[in-house]
């Protein structure tokens, strides 16, 4: 039985002014996949990730062109140039991790992770005290899962890049994210922190069946951690298949 598609990207293009950054991108991910997104700097990786996170609207379809849309969990989050109303309700099921860890530097890690709960709360808490005991416990559990529970009360700014990135992943866990999309999460990390972060993503993928789409500048990591790789060049998908079939010739033409 084939796993259900969790993300379906159809004929997505994106231009900024005259500059076409994504050109008719189509692919889908099944629940439980871990997929690497590779491509040279400027190939459109971040833009693609931002369109999937509903942070950047996609272009309208060209005259008589094929319909363009992005569906998550079988619901459209982008359709023909607009982020849909449904997108707001789906956001909390999608964990987004950026290269820059996007923690609030002056808040504790625990508080930073609790902030991941906001998408699910109808009333925004005025202070940390408004998070319930259960919520704080689930934030601690998430910090444990990524191996940094002992730093829970330190400020974001007191931690190393790798630890901050693990906190950003913990924030997606309290959200109960079903899919994590990570934009070059290891680009600013030293190799051992990078491996640690990739190990955590791979573990969440294997043990919790969380679908992972991760853009990576370094192809070695895609080959090591992701069974499937999608390669972008000039905003077009030029490869989508098993990472094991990527050849050195292909990779040298990619960059
Ligand atoms: P990558 O993440 O693969 O390096 P990006 O998606 O960041 O690629 O960028 C692809 C191209 O789109 C680059 O040429 C970049 O300058 C351009 N670009 C990205 N965002 C914007 C924007 N908001 N306005 C104008 N150009 C942009
Ligand atoms: Mg980028």
TrEMBL record:
The keyword Phosphoprotein appears for this protein: no
Family: Belongs to the ABC transporter superfamily.
Residues forming coiled coils: none
Keyword Calcium set for record: no
Protein name in the entry: Phosphonate ABC transporter ATP-binding protein
Any one annotated GO CC term: membrane
TM spans (from-to): none
Keywords per UniProt: ATP-binding, Cell membrane, Membrane, Nucleotide-binding, Translocase, Transport
Organism annotation: Pseudorhodoplanes sinuspersici
GO terms for MF: ABC-type phosphonate transporter activity; ATP binding; ATP hydrolysis activity
């Amino acid at each position: 039985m084939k796993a259900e598609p969790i993300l379906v990207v159809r004929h997505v293009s994106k231009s900024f002014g005259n500059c076409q950054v994504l050109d008719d991108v189509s692919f889908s991910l099944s629940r439980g996949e871990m997929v690497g997104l590779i491509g040279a700097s400027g190939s459109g990786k971040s833009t693609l990730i931002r369109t999937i996170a509903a942070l950047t609207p996609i272009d309208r379809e060209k005259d008589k062109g094929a319909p363009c849309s992005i569906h998550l969990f079988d619901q459209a989050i982008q359709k023909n140039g607009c982020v849909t109303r449904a997108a707001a309700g789906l956001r909390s099921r999608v964990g987004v991790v950026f290269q820059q860890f996007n923690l609030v530097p002056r808040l504790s890690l625990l508080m930073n992770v609790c902030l991941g709960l906001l998408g699910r709360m109808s009333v925004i808490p005025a202070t940390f005290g408004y998070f319930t005991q259960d919520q704080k416990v689930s934030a601690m559990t998430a910090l444990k899962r990524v191996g940094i529970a002992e730093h829970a009360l330190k400020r974001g700014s007191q931690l190393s890049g790798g630890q901050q990135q693990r906190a950003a992943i913990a924030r997606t866990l309290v959200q109960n994210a079903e899919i994590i999309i990570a934009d070059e999460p290891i680009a600013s990390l030293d190799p051992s922190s990078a491996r640690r972060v990739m190990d955590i993503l791979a573990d969440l993928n294997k043990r919790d069946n969380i679908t992972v789409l991760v853009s990576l500048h370094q192809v070695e990591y895609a080959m090591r951690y992701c069974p499937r790789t999608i390669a972008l060049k000039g905003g077009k998908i030029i490869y989508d298949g098993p990472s094991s079939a990527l050849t050195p010739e292909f990779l040298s033409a990619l960059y």
